[in-house]
Amino acid sequence: MNIRVIADSSSNIFRFDGLDYHAVPLKIIFNGLEYPDVESLNAPALMHRIHESGGATSTSCPSIGDWMDAMEGADRILCMTISGQLSGAYNAALNAAVEYMDEHPGTQVHVVDSLSTGPEIRLGLERLKQDIEKEIPFDELSARLHRYFSGVHILFSLESLTNLSRGGRVSSAVAKIAGMIGLQFVGAGSAEGTIQMVGKCRGANRTRKLLLDTMSETGFDGGKVRISHCDNPTGAAALADAIRKVFRNCDVSIDECAGICSYYADLGGLIVAYETNTL
To answer: Which GO molecular function terms does the record list (predicted)?
Structure first.
């Protein structure tokens, strides 16, 4: 039996070579219109439109039906979601798993809360592919993935906190101050799957230094680094170069944020995930 892997679109990944892979879209709601986070969405263009119009925005998670559609036809399924502290995607996937197994006796569906988003889910998918290729038993994959995530960290470099405040992820007062004084904020994913502030900086050089210092303090000494950016390829490349100069034996790659990560990272934002062990 084949193993199907499903992730929500916060992974920024819509195709994954070597996996039976499906992506389930979250949605951005702007001026009453719904924009599914699919591969064809021009996320930077949408973010520029949102900034220019100042219209009302929000987001929504995949429905139970969305998850079940992605499961259809598979016998063994592993789902990976954005942090359950940031979205209802995890709960929807759990409910879909129960319904799917009830409707398809003998199937197995496991759901993993990444407690994170974006490039950390990418690292999880890379590790999952390795385990599947090693023919690790399906029943062991979820536990191995949880152990792996315990040694992965995620950082955020954000030029705007507006959309995070709209979603209740940071206070509106903090977001307003950030916009007024032009600071960049560096945040980190917590063990509980929330975003915690690490510090604030003025200027790209100081922000990169804080990111590098935080990586070192949390145990990074070489290994995999995945960087996602929202319409900021120059900033992402500069950070990748700085990481390679400071740390040896790095495997650093860059991709673009898809819709939901672009919405929360906002224009200019960077999201960085990195390994501190490879359990």
So the answer is: lipid binding
Class for the domain spanning 3-26+61-149: alpha beta
Cβ atoms 213, 235 nearer than 8 A: no
Q: Across 114-249, where does the E strand assignment appear?
A: 152-158, 184-189, 195-201, 223-229
Would you identify the CATH topology of the domain 152-275? Hypothetical Protein Tm841; Chain: A;domain 3 (3.30.1180)
pLDDT tens string 25-79: 999 999 999 999 999 999 999 999 998 887 788 999 999 999 999 999 999 999 9
User: Is residue 234 packed enough to be buried (19+ CB in 10 Å), middle (13-18) or exposed (0-12)?
Assistant: exposed
Structure tokens given for 54: 């100042």
Q: Where are the domains of the chain?
A: 3-26+61-149, 152-275
Q: Which residues of 76-103 are buried (b: 16+ CB within 10 A; e: fewer)?
A: bbbbbbbbbbbbbbbebbbbbbebbeee
User: What distance in Å separates the CA atoms of residue 219 and residue 151, rounded to the nearest whole number?
Assistant: 9
- Asked if 74 contacts 2 with a C-beta cutoff of 8 angstroms, the reply is yes
Please give the Cα distance from 276 to 215 (Å, whole number): 9
User: pLDDT of 10-26, one tens digit each?
Assistant: 999 999 999 999 999 99
Mean pLDDT score, 158-186: 66
- Other Cβ atoms less than 10 A from the Cβ of 143: the count is 11
- Nearest CA-CA partner of 187 in 83, 259, 89, 91: 83
Which of the four pLDDT bands, split at 50, 70 and 90, describes residue 183? confident
